[in-house]
Amino acid sequence: MGEKAATNEVINELVNALLDVDVYVRRNACQALRKVDEKAAINEVINGLVNALLDADVYVRQYACEALEKMGEKAATNEVINGLVNALLDVDVYVRRNACEALRKVGEKAATNEVINGLVNALRDVHADIRWDACRALGKMGEKAATNEVINGLVNALRDVNVHVRQYACEALEKMDEKEATNEVINGLVKALLDVNVHVRQYACEALEKMGEKGATNEVIIGLINALRDVHADVRWCACEALGEMGEKAATNEVINGLVNALLDVDVYVRRNACQALRKVGEKAATNEVINGLFNALWDTDADIRRCADEALGIMVEKVFS
Fold it and tell me: What is one GO cellular-component annotation here (predicted)?
């Protein structure tokens, strides 16, 4: 049917069909409303779908969640949010998962205490896909969801047996306020730098990068130095970025030596980010080894690296000519 058929008359008929005695009619009505997307997000439709969240048929409840998800922020009424919170406790795994997805789509507007508590509970669901969807939903809500309970739940999720849960937990922590850079969060992310999965290690680097100087502990710096030698280039260039964001606080001999070695990496993005990191560290990185490495980078095949090396040397110019 799609949006072309989404006239007021059609929508009204579909809303009435949500109350039909025949379960297949109710299912198909939910599916049809899902396909007409945000344009169908009028009060009558929303109220009908909220009622459908309580339907005796599991597929009606699933499709109602999906339809509300498609409507996104336009469906962010108190009734919808309360209905989706209740759906997080549904006996059916797909209803619970679709409820997580719908709350994620609504985003910050859904960041009420009830929603946050519901998603924290969902972090402990027996089904991994619900746990990672809960991580994603909390990440979408960002700083508004940065309560102690959420942070603790996400730190625990960094140790989940499922790789996707650990990955999305890192991603969610990255989106929280940098004020949430507690010892527990930092220690959890440092351990995540050693994860067997490349994406978890990469997202852990990105989360530490977001914390900047506040995350520049000895343990973090050592972890990022090790990440500079990761077998995956994505992890190596993320580690360079993270060290760059920590600035002078990360200007140890070990960091500087690691970044100099990274200037010779086979991956162009690693070399580029190493250059940028050395530029951000500034004069404290103006050792002979760094200066020689940056001079060599002036001949790199990549124009961005040559430009960045030139800028970094400009910052260190006094040391170069002293």
Answer: membrane coat
User: What are the pLDDT digits (tens) for 207-230?
Assistant: 999 888 888 888 999 999 999 999
What is the overall mean pLDDT for the chain? 88
CATH 1.25.10.10 intervals, the chain: 1-110
Token digits for 172? 């969610």
One-letter amino acid identity for 182? T
C-beta pairs of 47-54 under 8 Å, 24+ apart in sequence: 47/79, 48/15, 48/18, 48/19, 49/18, 49/75, 49/80, 50/79, 50/80, 50/83, 51/18, 51/19, 52/18, 52/26, 53/83, 53/84, 53/86, 53/87, 54/83, 54/86
5-21 residue pLDDT tens: 557 788 888 899 999 99
CA torsion 41→66→152→215, rounded to 10°?
-70
What residues contact residue 146 under an 8 Å CB cut-off, 6+ apart?
176, 177, 179, 180
Burial class of residue 183 in the structure, from the number of CB atoms within 10 Å of its CB (0-12 exposed, 13-18 middle, 19+ buried): exposed
Residue 287 clears pLDDT 60, i.e. is over it: yes
Rounded to 5°, the CA angle 209-213-216 comes to 80
Residue 132 has pLDDT above 50, yes or no: yes
CATH of domain 1-110: 1.25.10.10
